[in-house]
Recover the amino acids of this structure.
């Protein structure tokens, strides 16, 4: 990967973060999809994409992104809590319990 492309990905990440903070999560998700495709192992990019999906009530993609993040970083308490809440929003509370318990054990808010 060239340095120029890396800077473009970083710029897109920052742009998506700005859109999310401005209350436009759907636009942030649109920007982040190609970033995560280009850097599928980047946990920060995956987390921002999951936050954008969750914030725009795109619950199935949020769940998929959060499950990937939990697989990559099982001790990420924030990801566990967010996955639990995403499952709850889909009326899947029984599946959420294990993630809430893990988030509690990890000290996540």
């Amino acid at each position: 990967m060239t340095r120029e492309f890396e800077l473009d990905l970083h710029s897109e990440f920052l742009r998506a973060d700005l859109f999310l903070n401005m209350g436009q999560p759907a636009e942030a998700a649109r920007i982040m999809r190609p970033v995560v495709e280009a850097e599928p192992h980047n946990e920060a990019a995956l987390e921002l994409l999951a936050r954008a999906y969750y914030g725009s009530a795109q619950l199935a993609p949020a769940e998929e992104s959060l499950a990937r993040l939990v697989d990559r970083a099982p001790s990420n308490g924030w990801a566990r809590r967010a996955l639990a809440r995403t499952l709850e929003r889909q009326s899947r509370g029984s599946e959420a319990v294990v993630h809430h318990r893990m988030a509690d054990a990890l000290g996540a808010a």
Q: What stands out?
A: The CA atoms of residues 43 and 94 lie 26 Å apart.
